């Protein structure tokens, strides 16, 4: 992946920075598109995974829709070329201003997560004389077999409507005069690698879909959410198996005529195309282990501190004998580590370190904690544009 020429180019740049392999992003998008088109599935890219404008413009060019969880994400999606008729608006805590903005933009659908939210959207739509299409986000009470902090489909989670709330909506469907309840939505978690979880989800979706159709609802679309994971241990295995992923839904969901089927991938699209580059500030030694202190920290990649996540780390400058190191950032927090007891070649001050799989929940979760500057972004598989100059924004 890293030629000597490329490494030499990278060494010239002030660190830390994000490096995006846009050629890989194109390949991934083509893979998603080909797999989804086999079943006429519709894709809404989950902007929360990475809201980088250059990447969003590439993604929208493929005709994908957008999955947004804030009013500003809707604005960013529209700015970057996503069609308003392909935008869905989710989120457990939408403000009145955000709802009014979504209503004004005539987006495809608002995914609703509580009875009170449904009532508020109905009132706000009534004020402007509009009938708004919504989908009911149902909590299916399914364990996603992922990290507890990114599991969203169990009863204890704050997300989605319970079965009792669904029955209340069925019994009072005529109360929401300014809403068109035309969809159902599910999202059970993130970084799911056990694909059998999605087969179990389909069983619950089949039950909910049947219940609503039999109750007289015209459910025109079913949104299965996202959650497909990526391989953090082997990032060179770069593109997830989208064919296998979509085949599970085709096999297990009971198809109904006149319904469209929607998905919201995020991490699986951008995760592997982003790498965080950092340089070694210091190498500390104590009685037990050596610790590498990088100039990148949790302000550039929060996942290890927040989720105890592991990212592959490579020293691009050294071919020395492997030694055990802890790899830490410069932030004044004990949790500011990227990895512990990692085998890396002998490392010294100034070495260039690559932290892989940073294209999802890296840049988008960055902060200026400790009043640090935001890292810059560089693009293209060769880090060069057509004029042979570094490509930076």
Which terms would index this structure?
alpha/beta, eight-stranded parallel β-barrel, Lyase, Ornithine Decarboxylase, Chain A, domain 1, 2 domains
Structure description:
This protein is an alpha/beta fold and 393 residues long. The protein has two domains: 4-18 and 272-379, Lyase, Ornithine Decarboxylase, Chain A, domain 1; 22-271, TIM Barrel (Alpha-Beta Barrel), CATH 3.20.20. The chain has eleven helices and 16 strands. It has helices at 4-11, 22-37, 53-61, 71-79, 96-105, 115-127, 163-171, 196-214, 242-252, 267-270, 303-307; strands at 17-20, 42-46, 65-68, 87-89, 109-112, 132-137, 179-185, 221-223, 260-263, 274-285, 290-294, 313-315, 322-328, 337-345, 352-355, 376-379. Strands 1, 10, 11, 12, 13, 14, 15 and 16 form an eight-stranded mixed beta sheet that branches. Strands 2-3-4-5-6-7-8-9 form an eight-stranded parallel β-barrel, surrounded by four helices. A hairpin with an 8-residue loop joins β13 and β14. α5 (96-105) packs across α6 (115-127).
